[in-house]
Prior knowledge:
- The complex is a heterodimer.
- Chain A is mostly beta strands.
- Helices cover 0% and strands 58% of the residues of chain A.
- Chain A contains no helices and eleven strands.
- By secondary structure, chain B is mostly beta strands.
- In chain B, the strands form two sheets. In chain B, strands 2, 4, 5, 6, 9, 10 and 11 form a seven-stranded mixed β-sheet that branches. In chain B, strands 1-3-8-7 form a four-stranded antiparallel β-sheet, with no helix packed on it.
- Chain A binds chain B through residues 31-32, 34, 41-45, 48, 50, 88, 90, 92, 94, 96-105, and chain B through 31, 33, 35, 41-45, 48, 50, 55-56, 91, 95, 97, 100-109.
Amino acid sequence: EDKVVQSPLSLVVHEGDTVTLNCSYEVTNFRSLLWYKQEKKAPTFLFMLTSSGIEKKSGRLSSILDKKELSSILNITATQTGDSAIYLCAVVASNSGYALNFGKGTSLLVTP
Amino acid sequence: DAGVIQSPRHEVTEMGQEVTLRCKPISGHNSLFWYRQTMMRGLELLIYFNNNVPIDDSGMPEDRFSAKMPNASFSTLKIQPSEPRDSAVYFCASSRGTGSYNEQFFGPGTRLTVL
């Protein structure tokens, strides 16, 4: 059975700190890994990663995939209170068509 | 672009009642997904459609759940009869399903409470 595991489950940091969120997966026929941010509503897309070792960046957020280690990290530098959210990792595998297999998420709280 | 539209946004019902959730995908998207989110289990795929055809419904919990997509712009998820354990947020998402690397856009969700 395909598995996506995120760690830590929750995290509390101070504004300005740097955080690293982890996602590991065990899937058959991996296709891509995606990161989503969920505040008090629907998940919104952050990154999609398909190739190992290529960093994707968007402002203070960056992510990289390691296919050898079957994992990905999401980094947030100089955190702000607006970064408080649940960060979801999801994997697409060929045997699941285009459907997303989500981890349970990391709940991040950034305090002033 | 209106995004994915779901209705109702909130639904409170009593155990045993029928519940119908509705979704309008983004125009031009040909893949539609229904997900359920709970604290215990996170976000789980229930069913997805490609070109209005159900492709994988292995995530549907049991026969009480059914989903239809009669045309490219409308889908329903029905629970009959509903039970308290069905209480969750139900999300609909759509994407251009022409390959595996397509971003899914989520609707605002329907928060269902079954008393």
